[in-house]
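Lab channel / #folding
Pinned by the channel admin:
"Please post every new chain as: sequence first, then the structure tokens as a reply. Keep commentary short and put observations after the output so the thread stays searchable."

First post following the new format, from NK:
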Amino acid sequence: MPAWEGRLTEVERNLLALYVAGLPGSQRRLAICAAAVALLVFAAANVHLVAVAFRSQPGCVAISPDRHNC
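Reply from TO:
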């Protein structure tokens, strides 16, 4: 996720991975599921933003028969 790039150093990312890997089975599954849900919500929000951006664009207007303002 580019917005998070630079927020965690490589060492911090590795420590976080080790922490999650060291969790008991049910907590590990919960942490992984929570991360997956967060990723899906992030992706859905981006899809929504792109869809809204495309819908909010003005329609194509003919300036003259051979020119269009799109």
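NK: The longest strand covers residues 61-64.
TO: also worth noting, The beta strands are 61-64, 67-69.
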